[in-house]
Amino acid sequence: MKRIILSVLITAISVNISYASDFVSLIQKHNEKVFLNRLEKQKIELYFVNPVNKKHPVNKSINDVSKSLEALINNAESSIDIAAYGFAGQDKIINALKRAKARGVIIRGVVDDYGTSLYPDTEEIIKEFGFKTDVFVPIAQRRFDEKFTRSQSALMHNKFVIVDGKYIWTGSTNITDSCMTFNANNSVVIYSQDLAQIYEKEFSQMFEGNKFHVLKDVIPNKTDIQIKPDTKISVLFSPMDRAISKGVLPLINKSRKRIYISMFYLTNYWITDALINAHNRGVDIKIILDATLIKEPKAQIFKLREAGIPVKIENWNGKMHQKSAVFDEEYTIIASTNWTGASEYANDENMLIIKNKDIAKKQTKEFFRLWKSISDKFLYEVPNFTTKKLE
Predict the structure, then answer these.
(1) Directed axis angle between helix 122-129 and helix 91-102, to 10°?
(2) Of 12, 20, 124, 324, which is most buried by a Cβ count within 10 Å?
């Protein structure tokens, strides 16, 4: 009798768990449809990963950065093209890709060769989906290696996903547990066939043409793509578009009021000089940089501080991994692109310059939330830390 009662209880619990799982699945599907409907109306959404008070990365989907990507994959109908530095600790994303493949969605991708050792799930992705790794291209001109970067080879450092030829997910966020749950990051999701076609051309160079880094061709007609009446977007693909000299520097040089920068790595001398010139003409500039930059001989932290520009060094457990800036409350940079020589001359990167006051306002709000989370003493001091991985 006891065995029968126990068996009935186990069956009842199993049925309840199954119903609960189905209910959660229905809620997720509903939320994903709401997200996609809103995106198709708004055309652009900006999301963040919060690093404050985080103790460690988790293998979960806990914010809109990861949930938006999962929603795009779950609702993909024909194609998913991915350019990612690497994959690690995001099982929900990987499982969503496997389900998409099972229902007939064509999935293609490129990853960085170094990322296969840096991020443990990358090898599984290569085997499961036939992703390709980048071609080794040494940084040929020694003066670039000495003056601008210590990198010995170029990286495929993109973080973008194109879905069904009309959605783009991109930004500073690697598809890893550290980037999606632990480090300060941002990702933008855009509904635009015109913009998706531009990204497809860049992706095809790498995946179909096996052209990476300086071997790529320049893609024309990427400036001021109008995705809605109040929003224009320009795209720069490194290294061929020279994103720093042709994208970042002109924005700094024409700024007259405010520049707010959240950046993982800043070693470019041109940018430093341009920021100091802007500061001297009265532009309000504030910068948050990652603590790992302290160990970099070419870091521009102290030169910027000596010029009177407020620079805070984060002291979170995670990293400042954004590669963003807001200019005069109108233009916002969202990118995979650190402000370094390697990003200018060698790496595969993508940068969006978004002209939209709402996006600028949202990025500015996030900037100051992070700024306030860092003690003012780190305007003058540098935090103690042991080891943080570079990516």
Answers:
(1) 0
(2) 324
